[in-house]
Specification:
Number of helices: 3
CATH architecture of the domain at 48-131: 2-Layer Sandwich
Largest sheet: 5 strands, mixed
Shape: elongated
Oligomer: single chain
Helix content: 25-40%
Number of strands: 7
CATH topology of the domain at 48-131: Nucleotidyltransferase, domain 5
Structural class: alpha/beta
Radius of gyration: 26 Å
Length: about 130
């Protein structure tokens, strides 16, 4: 059967390109939304240092409050659980840790956190401070 020159074909909707576009839009808006979500942290009055410099974003943030509580990634943990949390590997290696302590935190609490990090094998530890 030969097709005639002016014979029309029935149109059809291709779904595969439409699905590709929808996935692209979905990924685009997911990435955009994740960047808009602020980090939840504690309001700490950090000590000031004239030589402070900007550190890369840590994988684990430990916050010490003046009441003696230890916050890891926004939740309160005990001193015994701190070493266990820090000993987990992230991406096949020990995580980068930043310690943020309020101005009036006893030095012993700070040393306890640093000791737990050393026991867990953490080699990269940053100390948060405000630069003035």
């Amino acid at each position: 059967m030969r097709m005639r020159y002016f014979e029309t074909k029935k149109g059809r909707i291709e779904l595969i390109p439409m699905i590709d576009v929808m996935f692209f839009l979905l990924v685009f808006f997911m990435i955009l939304t994740l960047r808009m979500i602020p980090d939840h942290g504690l309001g700490l009055a950090l000590p000031q240092a004239s030589t402070a410099k900007m550190l890369p974003r840590p994988q684990i943030l430990i916050a010490l409050t003046s009441s003696g509580a230890i916050h890891v990634q926004g939740r309160v943990v005990g001193r015994a659980a701190l070493t266990r949390i820090l000993s987990r590997r992230v991406g096949g290696r020990r995580p980068d840790v930043t310690v943020a302590a309020a101005k009036n935190v006893p030095f012993q609490d700070f040393v306890t956190v640093m000791s737990a990090a050393r026991k867990a094998g953490v080699a990269s530890i940053g100390i948060a401070a405000h630069q003035h």
